[in-house]
Design a protein that fits this description.
Length: about 220
């Protein structure tokens, strides 16, 4: 069962969100809001192209390493509880691994951890593989669009202890979210359902824009 604590961003995230909301965005008039199908929208159809361009431009300089995961939620990655054997650590699936800002801090903190790192951007995976601490014995990197492709074609069913989705679900079209969650359910072990999900509140910031999320779904 998912811990309520996992649904809340860290204090650092909350401060950053408030700073962005205060300094960068102005209140919008939402009286004439129109909903659209995000599947048919320009940005939704070209998201892969934009993410490839993003990583080509910023490399691994845009996001900071997420050391707060081990501090706030370390028990979920530790190999000292019942979900991991005495000889092997836990198996982590990182969805939307980006440049490895989640993967590498956790690998450093938990040497027994085995990571499946996936993204649908080839540029993202290139950055992960080029990292100084990349080790193919502990990190399995693969391309997958979890909103449209079956994860079980990439990794074994019921083989994962922990799934992390950092700033990932908020980038998925709302009508694709059930497929994503069913995808994760198939690869998670029984009684080891643990999802860490921290999302930028863009639906709240842009709740009046029909170009990103329909009708403020959150």
């Amino acid at each position: 069962m998912m811990s309520p604590a996992l649904c809340s961003p860290s204090a650092v995230d909350r401060r950053n969100f408030q700073l962005i909301l205060t300094n960068r965005f102005k209140p919008l008039n939402c009286t004439n809001r129109v909903c659209v199908n995000t599947n048919e929208h320009y940005f939704s159809r070209r998201s892969l192209k934009y993410w490839d361009k993003f990583y080509k431009r910023h490399h691994n300089k845009f996001f900071k390493d997420r050391h707060y995961l081990e501090k706030d939620w370390g028990k979920y990655f530790s190999d000292t509880d019942g979900c991991a054997s005495s000889t092997n650590g836990k198996v982590l699936l990182e969805i939307g691994c980006g440049a490895g800002n989640t993967v590498f801090p956790l690998i450093a903190a938990y040497p027994k951890l085995f990571v499946h790192a996936c993204d649908f951007s080839t540029e993202s995976l290139t950055l992960v593989k080029s990292h100084a601490n990349f080790n193919e014995n502990w990190i399995h990197v693969f391309i997958c669009d979890v909103a449209n492709e079956e994860l079980c074609g990439k990794i074994l069913p019921s083989s994962v202890d922990v799934v992390t989705l950092i700033f990932m679900l908020s980038a998925v079209s709302p009508n694709k979210m059930p497929f994503v969650l069913q995808n994760l359910k198939k690869v998670l072990k029984v009684m080891c359902f643990c999802v860490v999900s921290v999302s930028f509140p863009s639906p709240l910031v842009f709740s009046c824009s029909p170009f990103l999320f329909p009708c403020n779904i959150y």
